[in-house]
Amino acid sequence: MSGMMLMLLLCLSLGTISVVYCGDPTIFFTWNVTYGTLSPLGVPQQVILINGQFPGPNINSTTNNNVIVNVFNNLDEPFLITWVGVQQRKNPWQDGVLGTMCPIPPGTNYTYKFQVKDQIGSFMYYPATAMHRAAGAFGGLRINSRNLIPVPYAAPEDDYTVIIGDWYTKSHSQLRKFLDSGRSMARPDGVLINGKSAKGDGKDEPLFTMKAGKTYKYRICNVGLKNSLNFRIQGHQMKLVEMEGSHTVQNTYDSLDVHIGQCFSMLVTADKEPKDYYMVASTRFTKSVLTGKGIIRYENGKGPVSPEVPKAPVGWAWSLNQFRSFRWNLTASAARPNPQGSYHYGKINITRTIKLINSASKADGKLRYAINGISHVDPETPLKLADYYGIREKVFKFDTMKVDPQSPAEKITMEPNVLNITIKDFVEIIFENPEKSLQTWHLNGYAFFAVAVEPGKWTPEKRKNYNLLDAMSRHTIQVFPKSWAAILLTFDNAGMWNLRSEQPERRYLGQQLYVGVENIKRSLRNEYNMPDSALVCGLVKGMPKPPPYST
């Protein structure tokens, strides 16, 4: 059967454009999610595998591909995967978080169907349920440019995905019990690179190989739990070319700070003596530094890796200056032929300003994290389903949180935290961090312009310091201790979208909210219908399905 005929049958069988876009290529995956036993840090422990792999399989897609992933949950708990950085245009139904989807029950399967519409770049996926991310089921997700779109660098010899992150030897269920009892997870036990850490005993197998004189693309993603990581390659410089879906001005770095949830792409040329070299990831802003290593081997190289590991920078001022060096490549084309810089975000009038202050406190004697005094709780009925089925008042209320606080709230309220934003509004969001630890934030469904990160407290006068020309368009932003960050974006993607801390402990204990961008006209121009295959749970289970959106 021809590929075109298969696509036609697929489109007819699905019976709705809410899931698959006919005419664009479709890639299929079947994932069996299981427990397994591995020793990433030398201690046997329970991990979560996808098709027996840790980390999970790499998703290799191209702009506008339809991606179909049939996930079989063979765990003993409900499970969801979220596709970090995939914007799910008009399609919140496949976002994989508890505010939009019912989790996949144990012993059953669910088929995700989404399109990587008008995107390129380096992304990742990971579990959104419980503390499953602390056990695995994460991996890389790349979106390649279409052949007709020029890329602002020569094609590399090969393209490698590098998943880095700190790691605990305690199981995900043990860590969850700590959090449920009101305790923090404390410090991790090590750092992994693609699920391993080289011992340096001469027996380590290489993670990657390079041919002398050739240039390679490395996509580095921090899928960790607690710490920012500094990444470097022994004896080699790295040319940054892409970050979370945007081409960058191509600066060269000896090392890069990769905060939790962030992905960078860099070019590395094999221009050194042919032998083994370490790639290194080490924790930043910690009293005791944890280091993970992996081997890069030159083909036909001679000689062992040098035991001298390159040192990481010290302090967060260095990291702040590195952030300021990141610039949007205004002349490069991303997913479409027009240059990235043709979108002049700095000339758009701000419709609304929202200020968010994170805090740590206690509720009922237990540790909780909050945004503007509200510690989010996921209701049994996903927020999006409650809204779609017209029973919102039974599940949550919009806008219970103040959006212009002057200081951290002294009292924490535990409830669903949902903002209501009018579609097409151009919004300024200020993240203010009064704590002593760095914060990293992520927004589902969107990319935003990271226009400023500065020490101190934000005031309206700080707008004069915004980068309104070539700030990076991305989906994460870090906020240094006692500092603030500002982002700008147009909320033009209808749905219910998760804004969260990228540290799983803080997310699990309430440092997240949802942004409801309502499809008030119930129009297919703004949002696709809920797919027939969508799981239902909570109060909507057994209810008649609402009438579909109109054109």
Automatic annotation (TrEMBL):
InterPro entries hit by this protein:
Cu-oxidase-like_N, Cu-oxidase_2nd, Cu-oxidase_C, Cu-oxidase_fam, Cupredoxin, CuRO_2_AO-like
Keywords per UniProt? Glycoprotein, Signal
Show the GO MF annotations. Answer: copper ion binding; oxidoreductase activity
Family matches, as SUPFAM superfamilies: Cupredoxins
Which region is the signal sequence? Answer: 1-22
Q: Which domain of life is it from?
A: Eukaryota
All copies of the Plastocyanin-like domain together span 32-147, 158-300, 381-518
Query: CDD domains attached here?
Result: CuRO_2_AAO_like_1 (cd13872)
- One of its Pfam families is Cu-oxidase
The record's similarity note reads: Belongs to the multicopper oxidase family.
Q: PANTHER family from the xrefs?
A: MULTI-COPPER OXIDASE, OS01G0816700 PROTEIN
Q: What is this protein called?
A: L-ascorbate oxidase-like protein
Recorded source organism is Pyrus ussuriensis x Pyrus communis
